[in-house]
Amino acid sequence: MAGKSVKKHGVTTRQLVDEIPEGCSLPDFEQKPVTMALAEGRNAVLRAVVCGEPTPEVRWQSSKGDLSTSSKYQLLSAPGSREHTLQISKLTGEDTDKYYCIALNPYGEAMCSARLTVIEVGFRKKRKRNTEPQEDLSKELMELRRMLRKSAPPPKKKMDPEQVWQLLMSADRKDYERLCMQYGIADFRGMLRKLEKMRRERDDRMAQYVNTVSNMKHMKVTKEGVAFFELDLDLKDPESNVYLYKDGEMIPYSSESHSKRSVRRLGKHYHFQIQDLWPEDAGLYQVKVEDAEVFSTELEASAIPPRVVVPLSEARCEERGDAVFECVLSNPCPHAAWHFKHQPLQPSDKHEVSVSPDGLTHQLVVRGARLSDMGPYSLDTGLHVSSAWLVVETGQDQGLLTTGADHQGQGQGAPASDAEESGRASGKRRVPREKGGVPGGAWLDPGRQLPAGLDGGGLGGGVAAASGTGTGEAQDGGWRPGQRGKSTLASADGPGVSRARAPGRGDQGFDGGRAGAGSQPPGSGVDDAAFGGTQEGPEGSRGRAGAAGSGEAGGRQGPGVRESRGSGAGSRRRSAGPRDVDGAWDGPEGPPGSRDSGDRSTDVGGSGSPLDRGRRGGREPLGAEDNKALTEDEAPRGGRSRTRSGAKVGGAERRALEEAGGRGPWPGAEDAGSSGEAPREDGSPAGSRRAGVEGRPGSGRGQDAPRSPRGRHKLGTGCFCEEARAPQGSFSRGLADTEARLGEATTLSCTLSRDLGPGAWFKDGVQISAQDGLVFEQEGLVHRLLIAHAQGAHAGRYSFVAGEQKSEATLTVRDPPVIAPDVMERLKEPLVVKAGKPLNVKIAFESRLPVQAAWTKDGAAVDGTGGRGAQVALGDGFTRLCLPSASRRDSGQYSVTLRSQGGSVQAELTLHVIDKPQPPQGPLEVQDCRGAGVCLRWGPPRDDGGRAVEHYVVERRQAGRSTWLKVGEPPADATSFTDAQVEQGKKYAYRVRAVNSEGPSEGLESQEVLVAPEARPGPPSAPAILSASSQSITLSWTAPRGPGSAHILGYLVDKRKKGSNTWAAVTEQPVPERRCSVTDLRPDCQYEFRVTAVAPSGPGQPGPPSNPVFARDPMRPPGPVRDLQVTDTSHTSISLRWAPPDAQDGDEAQGYVVELCPSDSLEWAPCHAGTVPGTAHTAKGLRPREAYFVRVVAVNDGGRGEPAVLDVVVHAMPVQVCPRFLVDSSTMDALVVRVGDTIRVPVRFEAAPLPEVTWLKDGLPLSKRSVTSTKDGLTQLLVPAASLSDSGLYCVVLRGPQGQEATHTFTLRVAARPQAPGPIHLQENVPGTVTAEWEPSPDEARGVPLHYTVLMRSAAHGAWREVADRVHTTRFTFLGVVPGHEYHFRVVAKNELGASEPSDTSQPWCLPRLRDKVPVKAPSYREPDRGQKPWFLVGLRSHLLPAGCECCMSCAVRGCPPPRVTWFRNGESLGGRRGAYSTDTLGVCSLVIPAVGPEDSGLYKAVAENALGQAVSTATVLVTDPSS
Known about the structure:
Elements: E1 5-8, E2 11-15, E3 25-31, E4 36-39, E5 44-53, E6 57-62, E7 65-66, E8 73-76, E9 83-88, E10 97-105, E11 108-119, H1 124-131, H2 137-149, H3 161-170, H4 176-183, H5 188-206, E12 210-221, E13 227-235, E14 242-246, E15 249-251, E16 261-266, E17 269-274, E18 283-289, E19 292-299, E20 308-310, E21 315-318, E22 323-329, E23 337-340, E24 343-344, E25 351-355, E26 361-366, E27 375-380, E28 385-393, H6 416-425, E29 429-430, E30 443-444, E31 463-465, E32 501-503, H7 528-532, H8 610-614, H9 651-660, H10 669-672, E33 731-733, E34 738-741, E35 746-752, E36 759-763, E37 766-767, E38 775-779, E39 782-787, E40 796-802, E41 805-814, E42 818-819, H11 821-827, E43 831-834, E44 839-846, E45 852-857, E46 860-861, E47 871-875, E48 878-883, E49 892-900, E50 903-914, E51 921-928, E52 934-939, E53 951-958, E54 965-968, E55 976-979, E56 987-996, E57 999-1000, E58 1004-1005, E59 1009-1010, E60 1024-1028, E61 1033-1036, E62 1050-1057, E63 1064-1065, E64 1075-1078, E65 1086-1095, E66 1098-1099, E67 1109-1110, E68 1122-1129, E69 1133-1139, ...
């Protein structure tokens, strides 16, 4: 209806016109825009797909008004496309609103909405709220009071009411109150009534698809953040489609568990789950089978675990400053907790924790940050964690020096002013340190661009004195993120050496050593994340790729260096105390390395820095043949920092070192480094052995750890050069590369060939002493270095220098995973488990490095991905092997190898799965041993189930039975058995089971075997009756045949009464002859006899019984039957009847034999089997129209009597019956029918065969309007609608095939109700009387017999009463007229068919009164309103009729004024239809169809109408086709 709005599935539709033309439709939404929550700054896209004819126009608006197309709002829609898009750019908090999409065409409009929530970052919402004026608190209080007075609280959530009712139908009763309060339903009783009605409707819809729905579990969210719900669904058709809807829209799902929405089906059980939950996943979920809803459940937004929308970001602050961390979540999370270095952080004055009013933004403020506060901070919501680093920067010297908590100063000999002057002299400019810029203290060429990707911590350049690209060194405690590779070196002056500072190349460590969030600060090159396994970012896996050092480590020559051949190892490192601002030199950095030694520095920060401690290069270059993963354990606190450099030192560098140490220049120093080598393409010198080594992950101490004093070295000790080295022949046995496990003792030793004086030990080019926790031993020419407990810090390149001779070797410290000894001890014992039981083997281990576990079984890898096989899991500190259901094939030798970068460890275990044994090996041989029994043989089982077989169980089953009987238990070493307890002549089946401690195996069955019996005689023949009397019966029989019948000892004779099952022995001893007379008999009893042959092997099977015989004297044959006659004949049968023979002619007949002889044959043959017990019989199966002779013979035990022959030939054909009418008292000779009624005249007759039937009217054939039918002795006349012309004399003529005739006549008169009489004239012929005269009815002139009835009433509105009836004249005088009264008269003509319409007087008759008139006020009279609209007392009924029959449909209707009834078929009026007519008699309406046909089938309707209304009654008529 126009103007009415309908809301369904979130779409409000309003029709604008009363009727919609055909082919057009209202607008609707195929896809609605969805509600979403986005962070500010992002773009929001709302999509809608519309439909309708004609294509509707679409416009967008918000609750604030229409949206115009601008840079903020973009309305997109392709020409001809039904998809329309609203894009909102750069969201802000003001864009939070409800947006409407309206589709409009000429016939209606449709509207749907979606809410957009913009999540503001930080505390902007709070700041905005503070700037707004505060509302009056009293006004808010009044509003709160008004809200509390309401009977029901307002709904908390907007949802389609239809969806709310669907949710209530599937909810538990205990949740009704909560849902009603939540969605604002106040009428609880009304809700229950409506729910019951809706539940019945839903059950009716479900009944066509679903049998039952049970075990419904509503939506729940697990602690892993997965939502699920379950139900049991018994579908009638397994192919029915099951759909999932969310908020009225169908959503896809998959059967794969890793998808967003998935379902697992196990039989009738459905398990739906939703992963990766976001706030937009909240809503109403419905399960539908086809189009029927079966279950509804709600996922509330409060149940969705919060996610991190805006993660924590790195915070930087000055020392003693405040640092702020902010994190924005998708949902409020009251239990969110802050952590510092993976430890819970409690709110305090130093750590202020706050949450925004909406519960989404969490803030942590670190007050007065110190260097000890630097580290990873994280916010844990229980399911998600966001981490970021706090970097504390000191305010001192952000230039060349690297400062720390315990190292604050400049190096001696190179004060800050000199460094700055040096920088200015060399033409370099200093770039101040900023966030995202170059680390402080780095020098760049003017105009030189920073390398791509440098973010403040990636520049790996250091500053070296008089060197090309020196690998600068960072301090142990002063390292900070973003200050890698800075050097605190001072230049050394020497002759011919230009004092120029050259920055290290920027490609020395940009990509290497980036730690993931939560492990190392951003930009760090330390690989501590590799130990803890907490790398989270994409850069976390790149921690091992240490930056190549200069020289042979991948560096290139710096600008302005004359004699650099690679990395300058002459740089010196500082080890001054916290107050040592002068930075005194304690010694050289280390001896210059040989050209072949290779530069093993793995970080641009220089050796000895934390980067170097955490990332040492391997013993072999990358890509070596052994390709071993080299690892190093965490260095102990206080351990020394190390520098390793094997590059060749230039002459200028050596002179600078000697002058700085108070020594003279080395001889030939200038010539030693004058020839530089051209660098390769990758930046390494041409003479280097490798282009760089892979950084090794190290543990790396904290940045604020104190520095060990043992890191100091004195200048001038341990310096050596390649030119001064003695040949290798000076060592009879040099140092050898050694591998040691973490914590074990190890020894490095070498033997000199001659005494070269006291030697010195170096590690990575740095001289070591006993203060480093090492032990030096010397026995003659043998020098040893003892390490009591090898640690990761001890790994490196060791060298022993004696004089000018040197021997080098590499010490590698392995740190493989460790399995506890008690675990290894328990694994040595075999593990025994029963088959079918689950098995979980958990091996715990300890490792500081990430571990990979590989399980094998009997040398083959275990595939742990199978759903039912072995499953392998690796967790935090353990690995597990799981067998859901152990089987025998799982037995074997298992081993697990735990590998890490620190080595590998292997554990082995033996698994024995015990089970019942397999069945014995077949086939089971069964043999009849001829008297000894049955012998069995089998083989032992292939698999004993892991337990020794204890014994076998042999069972036997007799053929035809289902019960197994145990017959023996052979021992385990026996594989044969003999069953002696068998019966001969029977079949048996055997089975054998093997039994161990776990139980019996499956049975090995055999085929059935027959135990052959000894040959016994066969059964003799049935005894023949030789004679019978009341005293004895004589029998005879023949001998049996077959095996065992050769030697017959005699025969046993048995007898029984007929009808009994008990046999009695006649003779106790066998009768040797084949003849016997039985004398022990009861007279007049009938007996049967049988014979059994007896042989030496025993009696055989009894023979068949004899024919029954009476024990009485012989009888006389009966006499002939009497009164033989034929009672009926047909084309295939003759029925006979007779009387029993006369008793004087013989004994009583015991039966009869009916014999037939065809007319063309001379042989008599019985027409039945046996004898006929009665005196009537029908011979069947005869040839039609064939002539037969018939006779009947009576028989008894005395023989056959004399036959009685029928003296006439009987033909097999029906008996002819002359036609005649079956007229009785109910048959009328005269019929009267009303005009328009149906004439149906049935006439019954009998005749054989069916005669010819002719109907005549007045001696002439009937007209076409009359229908006649003849069937099964009934002929019928049918006239659908009688007319006056149908009156006359009707005659029915039957004519047989032989010319016989029969006639029946009757008179039919068709009459109608008479017409109304003429006008009535009143006159007073005699005083006190009134005479009424009227004109006769027109029917009277035509000779129609009728009479009149006169009615009178004394008032204008009184009731009519009859004053005269059966008046055959047109005159009537009424006596007793009272003067002063008015009289009204009415005359009605009547006949046998009814009354005519009445004829009333036009004026009343009144005689004036003679007395004085007394005025009397007549009381007012108001005629009651008897008006009533039509209604059916009896409605129409449906009919199922065969074609050709009459159909009469009737109904009774009442109403005032009397209603008019109109008939319809299939909506078409039947007023002018031929072949059907209707009648209406006093409210009883009938529709008559004389002969219905298939075209008359349809829906019939009777419509009764009057001025007050109408009523309708319908019925269905089905006409069947007789031919089908």
